Structures are given as C-alpha cells and as structure tokens.
Amino acid sequence: MIDGKKVLFSGMQATGNLTLGNYLGALKNWVSLSDEYLCFYSVVDMHSITVRQDPAVLRKRARSLLILYIAAGLDPEKNCLYYQSHVSGHAELSWILNCFTYMGELNRMTQFKDKASKHGDNINAGLFTYPVLMAADILLYQADVVPVGADQMQHLEITRDIAERFNNIYGDVFTIPEAYVGKVGARIMSLQDPSKKMSKSDENPNGSIYLMDDADTVMRKCKRAVTDSEGTFLYREEQPGLKNLIDIYSVCTGKTPDEVVQEFDGRGYGDFKMAVGEAVTSILNPLQKEAARLEKEKAYVDSIIKENAEKAGYYARKTLRKVQKKVGFPVRV
Ligand code: ATP
Ligand code: LTN
Q: Using CA atoms, how far apart are residues 67 and 74, in angstroms rounded to an integer?
C-alpha cells in the first residue's frame, strides 16, 4: 500500500514491434487499472539484453515503447512510467535475491528452456536468472498485484516463493504479490494460425497486426486472415479463425460476441473482414497520431522520463535499504 492505494507493477520488453495482441491484451487494460491502483509500468530494458540487441535499436525502441505507454492513455502524472535501467535498485535487489533462489528452481522455468533452445549460441547467466530480476522488479515496489499473461505465471510463482522464503527468515519484508488476470477474450491469436497467439516475434508478419501498421496494411492483413470453409457465422471453438476475428472486433467496438454474430449473420466473411479492418484502424489511428506527436515533443518526454525515474527510485530505495539492513550490510552513515 502506498498512500492508501494498492500497488501494481508490470512491464514490457522493448524487443520487436508491439502487436494488437500486446495492446488489447495488456496495454489497454493497464489504462483501466490506473485509477484503482498506484501503478508502476516499466520498460524492462535490462531484461532485453538477455538476448543480444543492437544498442541503437534497443535505445530507440525503449523510447518508442515509453511513448506508446503515454499515447495509449497512461497518465505520466498518475502512473510511474520509467526505464528499468534508470533505477539501480532493480540490479541491487536482484543480486540479493539471487542468493535466495535455488538453481533447481530456475532450472524448472519453461521460458528459460524455450529461449535457451532458440538462442543456443548465447545461453548466458542473465537468461537463466531472468526470473530473479523479474522478482526484484515486483518486490522492489511491494506490489500487491501484477497483471501478466499466462506465459509469465511461472515467473510470478517463483517471485512469491522467493518473497516467502525471505520473509520466513527475516520477518515481514516483502508484500506477496498476486496475479491480476484480466478479462477473458483479450487473448488475440495469429491471423495466419489461430492456434498460436499473436506475437511480436512471429516470423510471419501477416499473422500479426503491428500497432504502427498503416490502414492499408491492416485491411490487407484482415482480408487475408485465415478463416474456414463452413460459411456459417458462429462464435465457437470449431471456427477458431472466425472466433479470433470476432474477438478482435468485439474488443475494438465494445460489442459482445453475440451482438457481433447478430450483426453479421447471413453476410459473407469478406464483409466482416472489412469491418474488422476498419474497427482496428479506428483504434490504431489515434494511437499512432498521439505517438507521432509525442516523438516530436522531446523536452516534454525527457522531463517525464527524469521525473518518473526519480519517483520510482524513491520507492525502490525504501525497500532496498530495509532489505540491505536485514541481510546484514553495514548501515550508511
Ligand atoms: P514475444 O513474441 O517477444 O514473446 P509477445 O508479443 O508474446 O512477445 P510479451 O512481451 O511476452 O509479448 O508480452 C507483453 C504483454 O502483452 C504481456 O502482458 C502479454 O500477456 C501480452 N500479450 C502478448 N501477446 C498477446 C496476445 N496475443 N493476446 C493478448 N495479450 C498478449
Ligand atoms: N517478463 C515479462 C516482462 C516483465 C514483467 C516484469 C512483467 C519483466 N518484469 C514484472 C510483470 C512484472 C514479459 O516478457 N512479458
């Protein structure tokens, strides 16, 4: 709790271009949570270097992601929007927590196994201890809730285990965080293979709608989206391509899937795909305009980056000093 409000922490990596899935499944929900919680939304650039990055590209993407947070509607006065690397407490707490995490626990992490198999030439220790840095992110701010997708649930579990282990030894130091599982229906699937989630690292660019795609590209991708040959307009698992398009249309327009089925019953898939493209464009258009405007407002964005890092640093230091004292580091004079 900070100032009577529960604390929320979440973060996104600035690797790859954000997709409609990232927006509808994460960013859009973050905006709706910012009234209820005191929110820390970080651009987790320290996590990004667990996979080799081009420095200039990473720097640019990190800034664009932070700008996108603001463009999506996160108020930088109310929410703490900052780069992970600007608050040294993340690294400092991460080291301490490394000493309270077992090799065996980290060995069980499926994301590590997955990434290690994809990046066989660079299985570095950071990739292995990635979940510990994530635990540090969350525990540093004493977060009560953490909105995460299903793929990050295992990392949240290990965060809770580390926090409980620490608390059992030293008393009540860390708040034990809970997962915030968003509304169902916000999981967006690939337009080319509806059994896979839409993802920024998909090698087929037609499967994902990127937030920076222009209207023509969005229309083309929607028109080419894989559906089925049933020809019936129903919302059901047996027609996963159509179901995904109905989900997208429904989140973009605020209509329920049933209402969408009624609206398009008896009309061809072609008509519907056009409507989906238009609905997506009407969401992306203002977002892109605002992001482009902010990209030019250098001084304003810089001031937000500076102020928010200071604010995050203040809360981070409070936890860190307590933890350092508990483990026996000499007190600063
Ligand atoms: P990568 O392809 O690099 O693994 P990703 O696109 O899967 O990336 P993440 O960086 O893992 O995305 O996730 C960022 C946030 O976006 C998470 O909260 C995650 O749950 C959410 N998210 C990602 N893809 C989708 C999707 N297709 N539908 C809904 N939410 C998603
Ligand atoms: N690993 C997450 C990003 C992330 C995060 C966090 C999410 C880093 N630290 C703390 C929630 C809380 C991902 O790749 N989606």
A: 10
